[in-house]
Amino acid sequence: MVTCEGEHEVHPYAINHKHFESRAIQKIKNQKLEDNMSLTTAATPPKRKEENKTWQRFKKHRLAMFSMVVLGLLFFVSIFAPLIAPFSPTLNETSNTWAQPGGRHLMGTDDLGRDVFSQLLYAGRVSLLIGVAVALLSALIGVTLGTIAGYYSGQPIIFSVGLRSSLLKEQQRLEGSSFWLKNGLKWLIWAGVIAFTLLVTSQFAATYSGVGVFIAWIVGVGLSLTIAYFAFIQAIVVDIDNIISRFIDVMLSLPQIPFLLILSGLLANPDVKLGGVLDSIFGSARPIVLIIFVLVLFGWLGTARVIRGLVLSLRQREFTDAAKALGSSDWRVMIRHILPNAVAPIIVQVTLDVGNNIISESALSFLGYGIPRDIPSWGNMLSSAQEAIFQNPLASFWPGLFILLTSLSINFLGDGLRDALDPRSRL
Amino acid sequence: MLLYTSRRLIGMIPLLLAISMAIFGLVQLQPGDFIDELKLANPKMTIADVARLRHDYGLDQPWYVQYGKWLSKAAVLDFGVSRENGYISATEYVFQQRLQNTLKLTTMSFILSLLVGLPIGIYAAVKQYSILDYVTTFLSFVGYSVPVFWLGIMMLLLFGAKLKWFPTDGMQSEGVSMTVESDEKFDLNGQVLSVSKNNQGQPVITVGVYNETSKQDQPTAVTLPAGIENYPKVGDYVSPGQAMGSRVTLQSWWNYAKDALWHLVLPVIALSLIQIASWTRFMRASLLEVVNQDFVRTARGKGLTERVVIYKHALRNALIPIVTLVGLSIPGVLNGAVLTESVFNWPGMGTALLSSVVQKDYNVAMVILMMLAIATLASNLLADLVYALVDPRIRYN
């Protein structure tokens, strides 16, 4: 549809730095390719040297180095919060609410008389955990789907082969004896889909009278017949890349905060069935698991898109052809040959994602749809401090400052990493 | 181009159906409905009443059946009523009462951020590695990392509470209105019998004045001067010295506008600071990319002045990707608006969405979410089309 594809697929908010990465990636790819070539001939020593160079380059980026120190400190005080914090974060001094900073309470107390400083440290655990966990999980999903989409782009995947399909003979030849077993299983699944369609439309018809019944009946039977025709007689062939890419497009075009808000409101409610199940599995950590889940839902999109573009070009390189010619399976080519060449952008991506996730988490908690107040997080501290903004302005200053510090140092770190891993992409 | 546009538009239909189904499922699966609220408000309701009401409203059916019903009504643009806002239609509530406030906020901040961000980005790119370049790069990182709601709270504290330069919430002060009482006064006493318009379109009020001699109300017509609004209605009593109505004067309009602008300042700045950061970065990177290309070197080689090289050759090409980004950044702006509105207590769509979910007024939530989805899909399409317009290398076929 679009001739100038690279430029066209740019989304400024959901994928912050990726617009410029796409070019950076080109360069990384070229450089890494050269490395790959040399690696096949030479052994480990050159790689060590390369790593040293990367570290040298990283050290030159003074802001990134400084950010790393700040981040290290933040992680340190969060992890060792029980040793550093003077009070328990949940200790209520109900007679001492909104205490001014100084004295026994370094940063004062909040609406329930809890020590703000201690809460900040404990909240760091939650916020950093969520940031890192979401980034890693999104990277896992994004890299997997992105690689599959990129690798199989233009090669349709067959979901079902019908009896009169032109694909039947060829598939039988390709898959041999296991063909009927596999295809029979696919047919069973499609039969299930048809049964579900009929069930839904019949239930729908039951609530109507007159013409409504007729329409629901026609829609249900028509849909089922169409599915049956393609599943059992023709073939259902789908370009997996098309589906994944379209899906990413749609998800990226939605305003995320309203959607996340509704979703986490839904899951956080104890009356929802799924919530009860989650409760029994995760216990008191449930809100944290939920927010991770909700953020991953939108978090993997950017990574998947970047990796897809990267794999699209990597799969046409000579080393991929060579691996295929030597008889490697698709999975082996993807995991052993293509992914190692995409490590640098993935690392940068994960780093930058951590910062974005921390901001998203705090935004949700701030609106009251994230972590509940009994587990301190920077977002919900800010939200409760906002209620007494004029009595105790400093209480809303500190949590935000910590969010800012964390996400700022992560962004600088990501910038430094990009420069170090790909010196030619200085922007 | 026309074919491409129509194909994209047709492609949007299944997409919107899928999105609406997802939204509806999410919203309907939320525990509780407005019947619960009714039950809370009315302790006399029995469980049988609740069950009967649920059945009557079709709330006991599975979500996909309810979705089908919603869809068949939505197809004729009937999105139900807003139960929490006087049972007016949900679309009327969103479009007439809330949308304009959000648009005011977002368009102002969008324009402001473009007006500030792009020139800074251009300057930083032209003077690459200068001190100003480093400062803007650093600041854009800060702007990128700062949570918009915290920025809002801090600005509120500093400029609103501490310095008292700007109001701290809402979009209008109490008692400020666009109109003032007119100078023209009535000089008669009685009840308004009828209101009509004369052939110049001016309202004519007929007042029944009590006549001592005939002991009856005698209709007396009063033609109001032009520009009078909110004049008395039929059945109202008028008395001498009472203003004939209110009118917009330059003074009152200016007071109103000044007050509205005053309330806009903090939210708009909070919302635009973050966008400024990203526009600066995008503009700088885009221009740097172009400046290193051959045609710019050729332009310099021809002996053109630096000014012409940058503004006539490089900048025009660097703006092409920016144009698309403008369209694609709309969902992000709306995200920011939800947060900013909740900080500044701005009566826009973001706060309407939040309260409708809390109050289980799901029709409003559906209208807002669907509108956001349509707006973003449309802006994506628009971005692609504008891209083809400004860049002749792009062709859709």
Descriptive overview:
- The complex is a heterodimer of chains A (427) and B (397).
- Chain A has helices at residues 5-8, 18-41, 45-60, 62-79, 81-84, 116-151, 168-175, 179-206, 211-233, 240-252, 256-268, 273-282, 286-314, 318-325, 330-338, 343-366, 378-387, 393-421, and strands spanning 157-161, 235-238.
- In chain A, strands 1-2 form a two-stranded antiparallel ribbon.
- With 427 residues, chain A is mainly α.
- Chain A contains 18 helices and two strands.
- The radius of gyration of chain A is 27 Å and the shape is flat.
- In chain A, helix 6 (116-151) crosses helix 16 (343-366).
- Chain B is built from 13 helices and eight strands.
- In chain B, strand 1 and strand 2 (88-89) form a beta hairpin.
- Chain B is extended, with a radius of gyration of 29 Å.
- The N and C termini of chain B lie close together (7 Å).
- The interface between A and B is large, with 63 and 75 residues.
Keywords:
heterodimer; A: 427 residues; mainly alpha; two-stranded antiparallel sheet; flat; disordered N terminus; B: 397 residues; alpha+beta; 9% strand
Question: What is the quaternary state of this protein?
Answer: heterodimer
Distance between the termini of chain A: 30 Å
Dominant shape of chain B: extended
Structural class of chain B: alpha+beta
Describe the secondary-structure layout.
The complex is a heterodimer of chains A (427) and B (397).
Chain A: H1 5-8, H2 18-41, H3 45-60, H4 62-79, H5 81-84, H6 116-151, E1 157-161, H7 168-175, H8 179-206, H9 211-233, E2 235-238, H10 240-252, H11 256-268, H12 273-282, H13 286-314, H14 318-325, H15 330-338, H16 343-366, H17 378-387, H18 393-421
Antiparallel strand pairs in A: 1-2
Chain B: H1 2-29, H2 34-41, H3 47-56, H4 63-74, E1 81-82, E2 88-89, H5 90-126, H6 131-145, H7 148-162, E3 180-181, E4 190-197, E5 203-211, E6 216-223, E7 237-238, E8 246-247, H8 250-291, H9 294-301, H10 306-328, H11 330-344, H12 349-358, H13 362-390
Antiparallel strand pairs in B: 1-2, 3-8, 4-5, 4-7, 5-6
